[in-house]
């Protein structure tokens, strides 16, 4: 017998958003695998009728969107009635992130369905970092987290650090919290027989304050390396202007489809993620899956993945420390080789899509049984 799953997208996010950011294929991979195990999947999005254009790419995943083009506020307020039939017919509701999870909780209560509250990063933590602990944004995020996590049948986070935070702040949610890391399709992200460009670095991520790209650009200024930056964000124009003297050595690629990343990874010598904090960074484990030696900031979310000197290289997040880490790796081919091999092994053992699908199915079925 099939299991009907409705996934609530992050508030304001559409399939078009995923497509423009180049992350569509990555995000749908696990749901297409679930469909191979008798799950019927529906995506409840905030997109307009243009989301329907992704029907073929989704390969059978049903799209629930704002097809009539209602004003955004009206669509959000009428979300549950607009999609009432799909919600009434489903067996389980899941959130993709916490922002907007309050609507998934309303749907679960209204239609008597179990809720799996999943988040890939702690929403409140990000707002605290950006706006301060007592900011309205952080207060609201904590309120949603506490309400949703208390009420959900299961809570899914991507790291043990996040699970520990829930145990400390919302102890009654701790027994039903489990860790399911982000996944990598290791058949797509794999080492290839290709020439790696000497002294080349690649970064993939948003051009945002927490990614710490200013320090990275300062670090490479007087090193004999090239740097490819993949991603978009509000800091890009200012950084490009400030570091225009690096034109020719620094390439700004913008967003690219996720399926093109293996080619960039396999022709680069080092992947670098100098972030001040992360949740469970997908681009890091994708680079590792390609056997690429990685440098990561010694920061939350990164240090839980990288074991320094074994499957990657941890660095301080200041420009001098990043400079030293890059210098160490470009000068030591044997170290790069060993780090890359161990990185691939780590991903195969801990983050492969095949393994994560099994964990995902178990949690969904536990939530249904509990309800």
TrEMBL record:
Signal peptide: none annotated. Residues 197-345 form the Glycosyl transferase family domain. The keyword Secreted does not apply. It holds the Pfam family Glycos_transf_1. It comes from Desulfomonile tiedjei (strain ATCC 49306 / DSM 6799 / DCB-1). Residues 31-187 form the Glycosyltransferase subfamily 4-like N-terminal domain. InterPro entries: Glyco_trans_1, Glyco_trans_4-like_N, Glycosyltransferase_grp1. Keywords: Transferase. GO terms for molecular function: glycosyltransferase activity. This is Glycosyltransferase. PANTHER family: SULFOQUINOVOSYL TRANSFERASE SQD2.
């Amino acid at each position: 017998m099939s299991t009907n799953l409705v996934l609530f997208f992050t508030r304001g996010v559409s399939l078009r958003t995923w497509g423009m950011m180049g992350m569509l294929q990555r995000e749908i991979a696990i749901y297409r695998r679930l469909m191979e195990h008798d799950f019927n999947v529906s995506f409840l999005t905030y997109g307009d009728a243009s989301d329907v254009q992704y029907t073929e790419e989704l390969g059978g995943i049903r799209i629930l969107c704002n097809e009539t083009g209602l004003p955004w506020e009206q669509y959000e307020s009428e979300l549950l009635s607009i999609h009432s039939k799909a919600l009434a017919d489903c067996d389980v509701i899941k959130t993709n992130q916490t922002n907007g999870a309050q609507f998934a909780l309303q749907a679960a209560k209204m239609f008597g369905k179990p809720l799996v509250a999943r988040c890939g990063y702690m929403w409140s933590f990000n707002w605290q970092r950006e706006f301060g602990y007592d900011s309205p944004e952080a207060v609201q995020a904590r309120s949603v987290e506490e309400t949703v996590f208390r009420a959900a049948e299961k809570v899914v986070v991507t790291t043990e650090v996040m699970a520990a935070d829930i145990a400390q702040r919302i102890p009654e949610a701790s027994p039903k919290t489990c860790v399911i890391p982000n996944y990598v399709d290791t058949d797509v992200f794999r080492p290839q027989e290709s020439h790696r460009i000497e002294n080349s670095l690649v970064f993939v991520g948003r051009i945002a304050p927490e990614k710490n790209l200013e320090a990275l650009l300062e670090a490479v200024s007087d090193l004999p390396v090239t740097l490819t930056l993949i991603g978009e964000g509000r800091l890009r124009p200012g950084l490009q202007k400030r570091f225009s003297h690096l034109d020719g050595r620094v390439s700004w690629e913008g967003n690219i489809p996720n399926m093109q990343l293996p080619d960039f990874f396999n022709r680069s010598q080092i992947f670098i993620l100098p972030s001040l904090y992360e949740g469970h960074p997908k681009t890091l484990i994708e680079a590792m899956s390609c056997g690429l030696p990685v440098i990561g900031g010694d920061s939350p979310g990164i240090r839980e993945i990288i074991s320094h000197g074994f499957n990657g290289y941890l660095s301080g997040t200041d420009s001098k420390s990043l400079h030293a880490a890059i210098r160490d790796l470009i000068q030591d081919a044997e170290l790069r080789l060993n780090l890359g091999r161990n990185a691939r092994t780590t991903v195969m053992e801990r983050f492969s899509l095949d393994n994560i699908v099994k964990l995902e199915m178990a949690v969904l079925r536990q939530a249904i049984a509990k309800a």
